[in-house]
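Question (not urgent): is this output format expected?
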Amino acid sequence: MDNVVLLGPPGTGKTHLAIALGIKAAEASYPVAFDTATGWIARLATAHAQARLDRELRKLNRYRLLIIDEVGYLPFDTAAASLFFQLIASRYETGSVIVTSNLTFSRWGETLGDDIVAAATIDRLVHHAHVIALDGDSYRTRGHRPPPPPAARTKN
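Got this back:
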């Protein structure tokens, strides 16, 4: 049960790759669920408010693969960071996750609001993980840039 962590700037294909891996897992009959990090946190916060967080985490563990998209785009408050840690910890060595983030691990403390929670989360996430750093320009803006000036163009 390996995890995959896709790191890189916006527009480099992290979500696209995560969805493609999720589709391949589903085609191989693995139960898969996808949501953004804020979507997962909202789901867990609702369960926590209704005193059924443990039940919700057990329910999510029925999925062999959870895809958690966009970690780091919006900061978590303390309660959300705790829920995110609990989600990752509940899957540790029992189920796989694919996580996408625009932040390097060194900046996860900013999103999770606490370097200790970030370190504990990252530790469990990367223990059995393939970490892939993507780089390059955003595919969304590639067609919107002006061409280089004539002097900068290479001659054939």
